[in-house]
Amino acid sequence: MALFTLIVLVVVTVLIGLGALVGLWQALRAAGLLPGPGTRVRSRRGLRS
Which residues contact 34 (CB under 8 A, 6 or more apart)? Predict the structure, then answer.
């Protein structure tokens, strides 16, 4: 029972962390703080893989 609770806590923490990273990434892109060519290269690599 304790193991199940621990797993749930870890999963929730990871999901919240990923959500925060995605939100920060989108905020930086919206503010224009990230370089255009860099984001294009990353998106192309993501599509290839």
Answer: 28
